[in-house]
Structure formats: C-alpha cells, structure tokens
Known about the structure:
This protein has about 725 residues and is α+β, with helices and mostly antiparallel strands. Helix content is about 50%, strand content about 15%. It folds into three domains: about 15-155, Toxin - Anthrax Protective Antigen, domain 1 (Alpha-Beta Complex); about 175-220 and about 270-590, no CATH class; about 605-720, no CATH class. It is globular and about 80 Å long.
Amino acid sequence: MAAVSLLAARAAFAPxxxxxxxxxxxxxxxxxxxxxxxxxxxxxxxxQHQWRASSPRVFAARWYGFLxxxxxxxYTFTLTSDxxxxxxxxxRTAVDNGGRHGLQTQAAALELDPGPHAIxxxxxxxxxxFALDLQLARGGEPAxxxxxxxxxxxxxxxxxxxxxxxxxxxxxxxxxxTMLLIPALAWTWRDRLIAHPHLSALAxxxxxxxxxxWPLASDLAHLTRHDNRxxxxxxxxxxxxxxxxxxxxxxxxxxxxxxxERHTLAYSEPMIVQAVMALPLLWAGLPLVATYNVLLIAGxxxxxxxMAIVIRRWTGTWxxxxxxxxxxxxxxxxxxxxPHLQAQHVEFLPLALLAFDRLLEVPxxxxxxxxxxxxxxxxxxxxxxxxxxxxxxxxAAVARVTALRRHPLFTLQALGIAAAVxxxxxxxxxxxxxxxxxxxxxxxxxxxxxxxxxxxxAYLTTPARIHASWSAQFADGNVLFPxxxxxxxxxxxxxxxxxxxxxxxxMALVVGAMGVALSFGSKLPGYATLYSILPLLQGIRATxxxxxxxxxxVAMLAGFGFVAVxxxxxxxxxxxxxxxxxxxxxxxxxxxxxxxARFEGLAPIYARVPRTPGTVVIELxxxxxxxxxxxxxxxxxxxxxxxxxxxxxxxxxPPSYYRNFDALEHFPDDRSVAHLRSLGVxxxxxxxxxxGDEDLxxxxxxxxLQRIDGFGAIGMYRVTR
Length: 721
C-alpha cells in the first residue's frame, strides 16, 4: 500500500524528469518538428529511441528545459558529439562543439548558484554515423552522466526535485520489496493456491502485470503513453473495430481516416481479438483510453498465464511454469513496447505449440481444429504475430521431424485440416492488405528489412533498472535482451542435453534460433532468397521484431532448465528454490515506475459534430508529411463522432495525403477552400492558435467558411456551398 500511495502521488503531482525534445528531418531547427517528446537527457540513446533506429541521413534536434542545481559550486560540462552540438545555460553559450566533424569533445566550467537554470542543447547531423553525450562534474569530481532528477521540462526548485526524487526511490524500493513478498505470500498460502492452481497462476500474473506497468493501474482513464503517437493510433484501432464490427462487418477495414481512401485499417494492425475483448468494457461505459489500458495489462497477464500452463503440462510442475511465464510476459522487448498493444497479446502462440505437440501424439481432426483455433486467434491479434507464429510452427515442425514420421499419413491429414481451417478463417482479414498493396503499390522492400533489422547489441539492451548500469551502452533502438535468469536456465537446458533429447524443448531451441537469424533481416545471408519466395516476408518492415521469438524460446527452455536444476537440489530445498527463482524472474525485468503522460479527455466540441450521412471532417492546419504522426491526436478526437476524417496517421500514408497537404498548405486561401469542397468536406476544425494573425483575419472574412462552434482555441466551421 505504501508503494501504491507513493507512486500514485508521484504520478499525479510530481514534476516530470527530462528535457523537452524536438526532432527535425533536416539540418535546420525551424518549422514544425517531425518528432516531439520528453527525453531523459540529450544522448545517442535518446536519438535512436525517438527515430526508432531509423533516423534520416540528415537531421537536427533540440532539447530544452531546466537543470536543477542544489548547491553553489563550479560545474564542468563535457559535450561530446558527431556532428555538431551546442550547449546553452541561462541563455548563454557554454560549450560550442558545432559544425561538421567527427567525434570530438569540448568542455567548459561555470559557477552556478542553487536553483533551476535554463538549459538548451542543439544537435545537427550532416550524414554518416552520429553520437551525442553530455556529462556533468561538480567541483573536482569526475565527469558522469547527468542524474535524471536534475533535468526537468518545467522550472522546479532544488528542494522539490530532491524531495520527489526521494519519494520515487523509496517507492521503487517498496516495489522491489512487494515483488519479493509475492512468492513468500504464495508459499504461506500454498494449500489454498494448490487447490486452484490455474486461477492462482492467473491472479499472480495479473498482480505482476499491474506492478510492471505501474502507475498505469492507479488511474486507467488518464495515464497513457500518448507521448508515443502509436499509442493513440492503437486506441483508435481498438475503438474503430469495436464500433464497426457489430454494425457493419463487411466494411470493417474502411476506417474513417484518410478520407476518401478505402481499406485504411489495413495500413496498420487490425487487432481484432483485442477489439472483441474491448466490446463488453465499452458497452459497460468504460472510456476508450481506460479500456485500452485494461487490455494492455490483461495481455501481459494472459501471456504469462498461458505460457505457465504449457510449461506445467510439459514438465509436470507449476514452479517451472511460473518461472517461464514471468520471463515470457515481462521480457525486455515486451516492456520496451508498452505503446504497442499488439506486442502485449502473445498469449495464443504457446497454446498453438502445445496443440501442435498434441497433434503429433494424436493426429485427429479434433487436434487439428484445436491447433488452427489457437493459431487463428494469435494471427488476429497482429499481422506481425501471424507471420512470426507461422515461422514458429514451421520451426517446430523441423524440430519434430522424427515425430512427424510416426503416423505420417494421419499427421499430414491433420496438418492439412489445420492449414485449411486457418486459411479459411484468416483470408478475409488479409485480403484488404492485398488490395492496399496493389492499389498503392506498397511492398516492404529489402532496404526496409535492413534499416529496421536487429544488431547484436540489441540482444544486450533492456529497460530493466537492475541492468541499467551496463546495458545502456548497447542501446541501438531495438530491445531484445531475454533476461539473465532466462539465459542461465536456458543454458542449463542446452548443456544438460534436455534441449536436444526432449522434443518439446528442441522445438523451443529451433524456434529461438530461427527468430534470432531472421531478426537480422537482409543482413542474413539468404534472406533475399527467402524474401523473394515467401510473400509473408514482403509485409514485414521491422524484421528486428523476429527477435521476440528468442524471448519465447528462452522462456520455454528456462522452464526445462529449472527442472534440471531442481533435480540436483535436495527435496527439502525445492520450495525455497522455487520462491527464489520466481522472485528473481519477477524482479530482474522490472522497469517500473513507467513514465506516463496524462490524458484529460477529448474536447467536448468533437462530440457536437452532426451524425448525419454525408458529414466529412478535417482538422487544420493540415500537417506536413514529416509530421504525420501528430494526426494521431485528430484520429483520437474522431472517436467522439466516428465521421469520415481527411486526416490520418498509420504505418503508411497514401499518395492522397501528399496531394492534400500541397493543396491545403496555405489555408485559408482560395485554392485550399476549393480543395475542401472537392473532397466533400462539410466541417472544419481549425486550431486557431496555430494560424498567424493575417491568416486568422483572412479566415474571419471568408463567407464560405462559417464558424458555428468553438472550444478554447478550436473553432468548428461549416463549409457553405
């Protein structure tokens, strides 16, 4: 309770840490930024994270906010960069390391009084490799990275900053203690838990999911990852599918965004399963953002639970299942992708592998339908996961080729039934992707497979606090570290021979090896050949995510490894070993408390859009293609009325978006208003604070745009004919 109270207070009232960040897709720091957010510090890791490891060849960035100084002293700033970077403190240039150059370092010392000091860092990359590092030294101390609590986006006194830092550290330690108490309490209540093992395991993973995402559960309706626009995009997807599926399923993929384009839901992940889960919550009146957060926590809990069930079935012990489930549900990759709901719902692939194993033993139609059912459900959570699951099952078949020969005719018949059922169920949801590919001539290229591929440092990168001291140096934008405990136990399974003797463990080993290899994309010899003959790969851009299969593999092998370790320990120590392993598995990956943004709800004006047929909405100014992700705000706004919206953001942008920007760039000129009419737009939301005085005056003088409502700086206009 103490941890909950402290972290809830921290989330609600404490000042944020970090600096405001703006990223530009050119070497000029002006105009609308391509990306914005709050970064912990100006650094290479922050840049790679914001650009998702795919930065433009030339770009610029700016960080600004305040540096909290707690006592008067001489402070030395050391700025290392490639290319140019400049540091300003209190409006004056402190370190000038600007210009085109390789990796070089400049330093300067300043006398600073206690209090908040305005700080700004600019960085320009002209091509090639880049690097940025800012360090601070007080007095004669050695230079070190600036502690996160010293950077704040708003002016904060030293006393306040240090007090909240104390609250945060205390709360984190209490979270650690809570995690340690869970296994102890489970042991104390073991008789009750043993009587209901499945329910007890689900409850455990639900508690762990709440802790790993804390403080999200403390305010489900208002705490979000809206600092990442993909989170808003996914909220819109859940809302749209839940809204349209019961009303007009034949036009499910005709999303209300990017009007008048069709099949716009196929620009991204449809998340059918998650939307169906959301339906009863939305019908019960739970807000969309709160529903999304419930689904996020539920995805983690269910993923851990199903893995625990599978490993318990294969090893005969719930202890191995709980350890494997913790490693699977709360791994570095999953926890680094909190804004992506689809990455949290991986609960069906373990069950599909279990069903595949069962089919090899009993190759009947019933076994085939069970395998197809779990595969279909996993495929309907995410197109990426559909592809990964297909490769995982193919790898499992390779690992069990000897078992396939046991009843070859019956086994092939059962696999044929499973394949036929899966294709019949999934094709209707995949056809829109084919239409989009043909209509827009979009195929993920081999260049994408290389640009978004993994590198070896990704497998050493994790957001876990316990590993922060050594892992940060490997950060490259992808996060794939499977966990130290998982690797250790998986190694036991390998070196003890279990991973080769046991067919189920061998499946896990082959699936993991396949995932690691494919995560390198076109860097992998032979990938281009696979790409040319396997259409599934032509839809995958972020090939690094194949590395998630390594986490699946490590989790499964860890369960087998635990059994091997326990077999060498005296029986009286088994309970203590189980408690210790479950505690370590839960603690090791902990990255909470998460940095979350606050959502105050949609402006009520969006609910006042007429619901009559023929209504078409647009929000202006129309954002340039380099800032397209900010349309996610407008998409979320559209959930208040679900009318067609010209704006949009997704995994791709149709050519019409570029034409619309060209025609609307100088709104409210005659050309832009004529273009609105040609699109059939009836209602325009104008963010009047983003228009200059001249444009506002021109807008007021127009008789063909009638202001009919307003809320704050948002004006709603009707296009008159």
